[in-house]
Inverse folding.
């Protein structure tokens, strides 16, 4: 609201008061809308201005105005706009314009402007055309010049006198320089003077900035709301003083938008003082000069304050919350106040401090954003907490220390503009902020939207929008370069004749507007190798089932498999539903953001050094050494599944380090006593996860964190006690084989060979190599390593004595693995019991996969097997033993034989070789103790005697007396009674008749269980006993001392029990 | 010609379908290297090689061939003399064998046994091959049909119930080859696909 006092106080130039009031009304209108002020009545303003400067100008101006339309018309058509802007233009001008138009027609020699066709037909000579062209060019030039002049504000100079022109130019320059003559007191708002057209908005704007030569501006405070009234008073005073002949020395008084202030413009401070003197409501002492630089801001038009609406996002401006995002829940007092909710920044530790400390802490420490948790606060026990309705809202909130909390959010009534400001377009809520604003009740399922706070939902929906937007913008930016297309992509043509065609992108031009595609089925299409398309004619083609990587957007860097492609309505792009690799979640991504890739990434899986699937130590929560495995990595927190299988949300600060390496070293035992390590596959035998098969990801003591690819919850991790599992699969079982150094190649086949009966002895394998404690009998309490096992007995190599003892299976308890005893000793009896009772579900569950591993190993050659009949080292072994036992007493047949050819003198027994043969034969008749020798002799002898009897049949090991044989010719059973030296033997048939047979005529009867057998080879050669059971190639026999021996089945010969 | 979007999609799918000459099982001759430690040398060397070969290869998924279901024959006479690795002392034998292979082909229809259901779909097995069928690949009337209590996918009219143990006929839409393992993505959203055996006969 300004009152222009300028004209009022120059008595000489001041016009009639009436006009003044007219002017004033206009001005009021102007103030109401700035646009009007600037361009609605420029002409009028101009005239006013000029008239106020000089009397002659009035006439000149009129003259100018008279001419202007006509000249305009003549020079360039389309001055209508100009005319409209001149409401003062009377009919006289119109006539004048028309008349001049007529003139123009007559003047124009060729009439090209108005009826070119006509004229051209009339004067159609070459010369004319040339002239016409020339004139056209000339006219064009002239027109351009005129246009320029018109823009510069000079009109129709031709019809004016030189003096007028000079005047005009001078005037113009004066305006341009904005040198306001002090004497003239032109008002500050010279920019209103549209009578002088402006060059260009930017330059003009710049030229309008007040300088030192302009009047100064004073600010005077007043009561809020009285500004306009006071300005009117000043104006009246101004007018009254002017009429009295003592004009006030001010040029303007303005009430700008600012409340409680008016501005007065003047060249002198005393003038201002005089002007405000005696005006009630103005605080005179508060008068202050506005610095020149700030003058524009005083007058700057501030756009109307944005009102906040419900569900608007706002930012807090005070205290700890400064800059925080908040959501408007309700608006009060017609927009002056609002109820907002935001994430609280509570500092509970303040309560414990002394007031001074607390004050200091409040000043220095900004508490982190954290949702209000009533239980947590109550647990501290120092605070009173009650439920209370928020005044004016019908929600019941937690009331704590003067603040209301609803669903974790702080709810507060604030003053709009002072405590909160609306989020502007330049500073919208960021993705991060929204994500932290969004709260999901972790304990409840995600689907349970009812209890989710509305604000949280808002954030969620906005998040989705944003991610969509992000997708779009990236698509948009990519659109210029071909919608994220890359060379090598498979694309599909979506437009044009070849719609539906698929091909490989072979090249993209620089601008990205065209692409070359090599069709997949070029032969069918009868096309050349490459077809060129516009980039928007093709789209990236991602088939269902493809393995993809997200290249952009919110899910950037996730990988997964496309399970579906959907086209949303009103969308050109396709959306792919991707099942992520690691987290097994479904995400929707635009196909333009996808790239086919074999890479398997885990997406966002790192936070402060912790990764997905890390075994971490949790702090707090009661037990000191609670551990867990990270199953989700969020932006600020983790979900950890602890050793009881309970998921928890924890922040990085609550974790106390990783235990991955411990987990890698850890060994646990399954229900059968098998070792379990990280990476093993197990079947869960009991508990809630019964029947599942999965891989051990981490382990902590006896708790296994098992990963199953088919589970979606908790990233596939679940927790099972090791005793509830059974090791699965053969691969995993002998996984340690080559890696275990020299021990395993010996141990494994051996143990396999020594197993009990094939039908039920699978558990035995597990026991061999284990450290056991003998629990009963003579060796009670001793620790040892199992080196052999049968269904009923185990052979234990004692740790403390250099001795192997046979113990009943039931009497040993597993105390550890082959690496030593483990601390857990109470599991042995069940393990043994289970082995002994293979029908229990545990073993049944584990038996099948293990079976596959065991069987092939069964046939394995066992070099380490000391009694093996088929191994290459056996002769040496036997010889050694023979040598030891018999070297002194009798001839060493083995050595004798081997040294037979080369009559080497190095062996003392060499000379006795021949007699050795003889004596051996003699012994064989009557001395059972010499049977081992005779056995080996039999072989050797056979080798040497081949030539003499030309019989290809070698004498078998079992060819000795008391052995039950079967006659090949008659299929009847017999017992060898006596073996003679010439490879014949006397046998007693079933009917007690005797018969002499040759070696080749009989075959051995394979011993059966409970038969009496004779050991013909191996370490226990010569031992007789009852065959207890047969396990594959092994046999267990009970000797006369009731001791059990394990021998190779092939070394057994059935003997007649009666003799 | 205007077609509703889903029909267009179907049309495209049909274009995809190359004539299905592929068979899920086939026999081929393959080669494998067996590394033996010296302890295994002896008269039964060949048997050992064969045994180890079966152990190592059966059940394995070879990237380009598929799962080795069974080693049919090992050409023992073609086992060449091995080569000693100087670093380890082990001997490498190259063994040729014929094997029965299982390989999933895209767009192949096969019957599978459902092993597990979850909220995103279900897993089904064809022998060693695991196939995931997403809810997006189920008929529309099953899209929201997951019943967490029964652990089953149930159609809106309650007639089709897919739960663990059921037999389904599905079409392979894609496969992923990892080291030693192949998984596939399937669909039951097409004619003649879906539940073929409610699994009760087996029980």
């Amino acid at each position: 609201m300004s009152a222009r006092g300028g004209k009022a106080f120059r008595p000489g130039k001041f016009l009639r008061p009436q006009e003044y009031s007219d002017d004033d009304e206009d001005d009021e209108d102007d103030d109401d809308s700035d646009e009007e002020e600037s361009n609605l009545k420029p002409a009028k303003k101009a005239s006013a201005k000029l008239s106020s400067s000089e009397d002659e100008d009035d006439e000149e101006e009129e003259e100018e105005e008279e001419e202007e339309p006509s000249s305009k018309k003549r020079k360039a058509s389309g001055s209508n706009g100009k005319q409209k802007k001149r409401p003062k233009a009377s009919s006289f001008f119109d006539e004048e314009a028309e008349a001049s138009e007529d003139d123009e027609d007559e003047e124009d020699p060729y009439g090209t402007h108005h009826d070119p066709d006509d004229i051209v037909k009339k004067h159609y000579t070459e010369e004319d055309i040339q002239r016409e062209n020339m004139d056209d060019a000339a006219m064009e030039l002239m027109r351009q010049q005129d246009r320029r002049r018109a823009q510069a504000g000079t009109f129709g100079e031709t019809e004016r006198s030189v003096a007028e022109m000079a005047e005009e130019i001078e005037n113009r320059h004066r305006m341009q320089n904005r040198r306001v003559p002090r004497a003239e007191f032109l008002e500050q708002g010279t920019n209103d003077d549209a009578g002088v057209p402006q060059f260009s908005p930017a330059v003009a704007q710049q030229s309008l900035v007040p300088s030192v030569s302009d009047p100064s501006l004073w600010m005077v405070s007043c009561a809020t709301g009285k500004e306009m009234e006071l300005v009117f008073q000043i104006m009246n005073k101004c007018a009254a003083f002017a009429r009295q002949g003592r004009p006030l020395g001010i040029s303007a008084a303005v009430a700008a938008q600012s409340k409680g202030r008016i501005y007065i413009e003047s060249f002198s401070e005393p003038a201002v003082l005089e002007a405000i003197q005696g005006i009630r409501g103005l605080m005179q002492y508060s008068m202050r000069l506005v610095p020149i630089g700030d003058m524009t801001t005083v007058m700057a038009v501030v756009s109307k304050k944005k009102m906040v609406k419900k569900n608007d996002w706002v930012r807090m401006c005070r205290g700890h919350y400064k800059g925080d995002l908040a959501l408007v829940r309700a608006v009060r007092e017609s927009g002056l106040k609002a109820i907002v909710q935001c994430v609280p920044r509570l500092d509970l530790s303040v309560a414990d401090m002394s007031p001074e400390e607390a004050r200091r802490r409040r000043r220095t420490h900004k508490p982190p954003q954290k949702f209000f948790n009533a239980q947590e606060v109550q647990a501290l026990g120092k605070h009173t907490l009650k439920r209370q309705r928020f005044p004016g809202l019908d929600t019941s909130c937690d009331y704590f220390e003067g603040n209301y909390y609803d669903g974790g959010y702080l709810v507060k009534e604030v003053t709009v503009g002072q405590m909160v400001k609306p989020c502007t377009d330049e500073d919208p809520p960021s993705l991060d902020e929204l994500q932290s604003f969004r709260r999901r009740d972790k304990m409840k399922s995600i689907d349970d939207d009812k209890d989710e706070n509305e604000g949280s939902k808002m954030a969620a929906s906005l998040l989705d929008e944003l991610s969509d937007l992000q997708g779009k913008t990236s698509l948009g930016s990519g659109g210029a370069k071909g919608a994220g297309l890359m060379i090598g992509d498979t694309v599909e043509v979506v437009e044009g004749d070849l719609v539906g065609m698929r091909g490989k992108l072979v090249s993209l031009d620089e601008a990205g507007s065209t692409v070359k595609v090599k069709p997949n089925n070029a032969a069918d299409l009868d096309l050349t190798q490459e077809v060129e398309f516009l980039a928007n004619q093709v789209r990236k083609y991602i088939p269902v089932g493809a393995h993809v990587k997200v290249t952009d957007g919110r899910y950037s860097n996730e990988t997964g498999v496309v399970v579906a492609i959907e086209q949303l309505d009103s969308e050109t792009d396709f959306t792919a539903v991707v099942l992520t690799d690691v987290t097994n979640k479904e995400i929707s991504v635009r196909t333009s953001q996808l790239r086919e890739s074999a890479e398997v990434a885990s997406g966002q899986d790192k936070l402060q050094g912790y990764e997905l699937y890390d075994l971490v130590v949790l702090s707090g929560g009661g037990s000191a050494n609670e551990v867990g495995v990270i199953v989700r990595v969020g932006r600020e927190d983790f979900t950890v599944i602890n050793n009881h299988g309970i998921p928890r949300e924890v922040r990085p600060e609550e974790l106390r380090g990783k235990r991955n390496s411990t987990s890698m070293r850890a060994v646990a035992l399954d229900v059968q006593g098998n070792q379990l390590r990280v990476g093993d596959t197990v079947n869960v035998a009991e508990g809630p996860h019964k029947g599942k098969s999965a891989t051990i990801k981490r382990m902590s003591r006896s708790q296994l964190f098992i990963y199953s690819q088919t589970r979606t919850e908790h990233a596939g991790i679940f927790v099972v006690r090791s005793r509830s599992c059974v090791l699965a699969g053969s691969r995993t079982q002998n996984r340690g084989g080559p890696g275990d150094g020299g021990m395993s190649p010996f141990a494994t086949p051996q143990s396999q060979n020594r197993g009990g009966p094939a039908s039920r002895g699978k558990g035995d394998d597990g026991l061999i190599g284990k450290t056991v404690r003998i629990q009963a009998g003579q060796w009670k309490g001793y620790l040892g390593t199992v080196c052999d096992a049968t269904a009923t007995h185990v052979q234990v190599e004692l740790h403390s004595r250099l001795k192997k003892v046979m113990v009943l299976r039931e009497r040993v308890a597993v105390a550890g693995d082959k690496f030593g005893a483990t601390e857990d000793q109470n599991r042995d009896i069940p393990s043994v019991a289970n082995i002994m009772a293979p029908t229990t579900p545990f073993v049944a569950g584990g038996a099948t996969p293990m079976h596959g591993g065991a069987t092939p190993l069964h046939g394995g050659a066992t070099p380490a097997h000391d009694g093996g009949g088929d191994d290459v080292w056996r002769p040496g072994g036997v010889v050694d033993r023979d040598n030891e036992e018999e070297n002194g007493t009798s001839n060493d047949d083995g050595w004798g034989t081997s040294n037979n050819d080369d009559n080497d003198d190095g062996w003392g027994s060499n000379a006795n070789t021949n007699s050795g043969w003889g004596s051996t034969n003699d012994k064989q008749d009557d001395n059972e103790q010499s049977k081992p020798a005779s056995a080996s002799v039999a072989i050797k002898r056979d080798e040497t005697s081949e030539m003499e009897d030309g019989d290809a049949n070698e004498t078998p090991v079992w060819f000795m007396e008391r052995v039950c044989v079967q006659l090949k010719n008659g299929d009847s059973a017999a017992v060898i009674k006596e073996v003679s030296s010439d490879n014949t033997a006397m046998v007693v048939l079933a009917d007690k008749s005797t018969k002499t047979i040759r070696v080749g005529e009989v075959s051995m009867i394979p011993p059966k269980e409970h038969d009496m057998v004779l050991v013909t080879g191996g370490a226990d050669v010569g031992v007789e006993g009852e065959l207890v059971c047969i396990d594959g190639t092994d046999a267990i026999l009970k000797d006369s001392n009731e001791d059990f021996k394990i021998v190779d089945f092939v070394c057994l010969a059935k003997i007649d029990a009666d003799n | 010609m205007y077609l509703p979007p889903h029909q267009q999609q179907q049309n495209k799918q049909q274009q995809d379908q190359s004539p299905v000459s592929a068979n899920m099982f086939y026999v081929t001759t393959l080669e494998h290297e067996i590394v033996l430690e010296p302890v295994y040398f002896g008269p039964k060397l060949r048997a050992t090689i064969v045994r180890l070969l079966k152990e190592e290869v059966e059940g394995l998924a070879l990237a380009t061939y598929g799962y080795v279901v069974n080693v049919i024959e090992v050409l023992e006479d073609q086992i060449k003399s091995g080569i000693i690795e100087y670093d380890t002392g082990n001997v490498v034998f190259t063994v040729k064998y014929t094997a029965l292979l299982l390989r999933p082909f895209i767009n192949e229809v096969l019957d599978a046994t459902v092993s597990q259901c979850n909220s995103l779909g279900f897993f089904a097995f064809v022998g060693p091959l695991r196939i995931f069928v997403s809810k997006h690949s189920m008929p529309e009337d099953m899209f929201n049909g997951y019943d967490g209590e029964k652990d089953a996918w149930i159609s809106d009219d309650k007639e089709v119930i897919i739960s663990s143990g059921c037999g389904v006929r599905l079409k392979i839409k894609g496969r992923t080859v990892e080291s030693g393992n192949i998984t596939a993505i399937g669909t039951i959203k097409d004619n003649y696909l879906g539940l073929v055996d409610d699994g009760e006969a087996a029980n």
